[in-house]
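Hi everyone, sorry if this is the wrong subforum. Our group has a chain we'd like a structural model of before ordering constructs, and none of us has done structure prediction before. Sequence below.
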Amino acid sequence: MNKKVFLSFDVEEFDMPLEYQYAISVDDQMQVGINGLDAIQPVLERVPSTLFTTANFANHFPDRIRLLAEKHEIASHTFYHTDYETADLLKSRLRLEEITGKKVTGLRMPRMRPVLMKDVLAAGYQYDSSINPTWLPGRYNNFHLPRTAYKEEDIMRIPASVSPGIRIPLFWLSFKNMPYTVYKQLCLQTLAKDGYLCLYFHPWEFTPIEPYGLPAYTRRWCGPLLIERLMQLVKDLSKEASFDTMNQFGFPVLMK
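Answer:
Right subforum, don't worry. Here is the predicted structure as tokens:
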């Protein structure tokens, strides 16, 4: 079977400083977000990706999102990154479809919040990628959930990739804080075991975010150095697998 890498970015307003009592205006949140999209352009030019986008961000930059939709998958990150109500599932999907002129089939909840699959199905989605099946102190403990893709209430759930066995997460914080060779080896081990990788990042990580009062572990390797690291990862993983958008995940991988 052809191995796949599903590279995704959560395209959103940069509201993370608010979690750490650092005041940042909405205008600045949007500016950092769009600067991040500019920064990751070399990656987006090289491989197809899935962009989980808040409708709020897309409303501020509709032309950019429409242009990205020509090569990449636009999926929903609900309407606002911080505020949420169930009605936002449908509202965000419809708004993103209006902007892009394409069907939106995927969802990822901000900060991997829990969401009911009956609500996801009712809002017209086909898949959800809102699970990191590991333990993240202060956020969630998902060791009880499947490590790889599965169906729940007619929705395909595609968890973020974690390593076999002890479930070391392969998400953005690991990429920043692990030695590159260790992270790459875990990716290759997981790819060999599962036949695919589901990796996620944020465009704002690839901008200089040192001034915004964030913990050191969240801003390490930010800016151009992180782009270089991600480009190297794309190059290394391309030797082992092809890149695709998550709406092309399909059942052949699921049934592996």
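For your construct planning: Residues 251-256 have pLDDT under 50 and may be disordered. DSSP finds twelve helices and eleven strands in the chain.
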